[in-house]
Amino acid sequence: MKKTTPDTEIKNKIYNVARKLFVEKGYHRASIPDLVRASGVSIGAIYHHFPSKEELARTIHEDAVNLFLNKYDCYVRPRQSGREKVRYFVKMMFEWADTDLITVNYLLHARPPEVLNCNFTICTAEGLEAVKEIISCGQACGEFKPVNPILLAAMVSGPIMRMIELKTDGVITEPLSNLIDETAELIFSALRA
Amino acid sequence: MKKTTPDTEIKNKIYNVARKLFVEKGYHRASIPDLVRASGVSIGAIYHHFPSKEELARTIHEDAVNLFLNKYDCYVRPRQSGREKVRYFVKMMFEWADTDLITVNYLLHARPPEVLNCNFTICTAEGLEAVKEIISCGQACGEFKPVNPILLAAMVSGPIMRMIELKTDGVITEPLSNLIDETAELIFSALRA
Amino acid sequence: MKKTTPDTEIKNKIYNVARKLFVEKGYHRASIPDLVRASGVSIGAIYHHFPSKEELARTIHEDAVNLFLNKYDCYVRPRQSGREKVRYFVKMMFEWADTDLITVNYLLHARPPEVLNCNFTICTAEGLEAVKEIISCGQACGEFKPVNPILLAAMVSGPIMRMIELKTDGVITEPLSNLIDETAELIFSALRA
Amino acid sequence: MKKTTPDTEIKNKIYNVARKLFVEKGYHRASIPDLVRASGVSIGAIYHHFPSKEELARTIHEDAVNLFLNKYDCYVRPRQSGREKVRYFVKMMFEWADTDLITVNYLLHARPPEVLNCNFTICTAEGLEAVKEIISCGQACGEFKPVNPILLAAMVSGPIMRMIELKTDGVITEPLSNLIDETAELIFSALRA
DNA sequence: CATGAATGAGCATTCATTCAT
DNA sequence: CATGAATGAATGCTCATTCAT
């Protein structure tokens, strides 16, 4: 994994505050002056560490994607059955959301297409690939229904994303990790052949 | 249903172009000059018909919400079983998305909370109520699993939203209406007791 | 006296509301939309009766000037002595201010130079002439001090304007007409030889 | 005295040009682009140094008020008799007007009430207090007539303001300082018991 | 006569970015 | 490395005015 994450203290400050603001207010409403205010760092310092606001956003985004892919490799890929992969995918996302809702929301909602030229959410590009891999594994061994795989992918990612949104919006108040098994089971009961 | 939709030709032009741009570029990136360019209407005309950009967005948003609620009342509420309600909800959303993807996406993604003071997506506020109504109906008669209703709600709305996103992103190319039965069945198999 | 004052009901409405707003908010802050709001008259009607906002202001201003000159001719000019002229000038202004503070303030403060190309306050142009006439009359017959007439003019107009300002600002609450004799006497005691 | 006056060169430039334009054209007609044109400073620089046009005006205004109050404390307050106070007040204002007509006119005419929330001219608020102090001192020791003090105040401030206006309008061409004694004497002859 | 939709120049302000210190 | 003064394009919006009805 390419390490893009900042290492000096001040760079870290900028990075973290930026991620928070981008999620809270959206990329366009989070201005450099906002960032300066919220971080206590100078304009100059921001432009010293990042070539532009857009590049700062891209860095944050790519780090989140890489984190996602890493987590996926660790948590999900090693599982043998489709059912287990689904369970661990839910577990991975819910625990991550409990730990760092900001990053997860960035991944889900920062709507990079508006900002960057890439178009990534968990179910698009690399994200979509991950979920499709779960599906094709489950379908290959006859564990999942032999229907349109895109549809099954939506059955996996859709509820997970919704749950995280509902957590973010305060509709769900308990930790998502309490709901891992129930959610995974429900999703699995839709997929199972 | 309160009719907020514009009636003069030019007001309509502004309204439609605005909705399109707000979805395509997001509220903040869709500037008034953009709107002027895209619609051929003058700045003054926009402000003659709508008191502000924000109010224009709010009008569009409320119209979409009202449309959703109306459709829900017509399509979904009259169905007797939970299964039928789910099927007609999927049908309603997929056919709507095929007919007017812009409005549906506005509803799903325009993220009005950034802009407006309301916070509505199909699964929040009125939208959430609609889906919860489906769930509680299905649970009341023992048709659906007696688990956390929020979770079941996410199992309904999540996949639908995902499918519409995938259609928007071009991952799905066929009309969503081709996938109504399959999707509804899949969702139902997750919910069923 | 050239009669510029409007005669139709609607023209009158525009005229009176405009004068009020020009004094209250100043010419530049009193917008045509404000005028429409405050008068209930349509934009079109305003432009039907007056060629432009500036011309409307000029009309109002010239009427006020003409009114001033007429009043001067009636009240002040016929007086024989400087003392009487001063007394009647004070009387004229104070009674006018009690009756129609708006017009008087327009005359004093609308600062037409900002707006129009004329530069008139009671003590400039025609206004100045009036006061200078009082002074030269009083000086000619040895009633007033033989000092710089401009200075004496300032001694007449300055206190009168100040009193009207203080009335407008609410510092003086009683009718100015109660103060006519006292004021005139005070001014006269400064001028008298 | 709180020092609000700017200290960097560019801030000074903005400040001085703004004061000049506000007096010449009035607050509302003096636009930021005008300011940019007249000062050679960029828009950004203006907003870097002052949070808004209104705050810029308020700063200028408050500085002028403070300057007035300081001058009053130095020149007028130490005088013992009412006559001397009047003389020094005239002297202070006339010399100030000769030196910096712009600031004095700002104080007299910028009509901040339209803009700001304070309502200060020499004879209102702090200004009025200053003149009233002169009056009450003179009345206390029987030097001035025992009439309505507001009236006496108008006899002091009115002619002074008129003279400065006449100087500004070009009616008076010689330095006002030539007229100090004559003016003070005239005013005093009105006040004296 | 009267209306009000339409126009577009102009305004106050924000913001990403540069660069001299 | 770090600062923050300076820039000016771009934005949302207001307003005097025109003109078809």
TrEMBL record, chains A, B, C, D:
Pfam families named in the record: TetR_N
InterPro entries on file: DNA-bd_HTH_TetR-type_CS, Homeodomain-like_sf, HTH-type_Tx_Regulator, HTH_TetR, Tet_transcr_reg_TetR-rel_C_sf
Entry keyword DNA-binding: yes
Key words of the record: DNA-binding
GO molecular function: DNA binding
All residue ranges annotated as the HTH tetR-type domain in the record: 8-68
DNA-binding region(s), residue ranges: 31-50
Cross-referenced PROSITE patterns: HTH_TETR_1 (PS01081), HTH_TETR_2 (PS50977)
Highest taxon of source: Bacteria
PANTHER family: ACREF/ENVCD OPERON REPRESSOR-RELATED, ACREF_ENVCD OPERON REPRESSOR-RELATED
Official protein name in the record: Transcriptional regulator, TetR family
Species of origin: Carboxydocella sporoproducens DSM 16521
Lineage summary: Bacteria, Bacillati, Bacillota, Clostridia, Eubacteriales
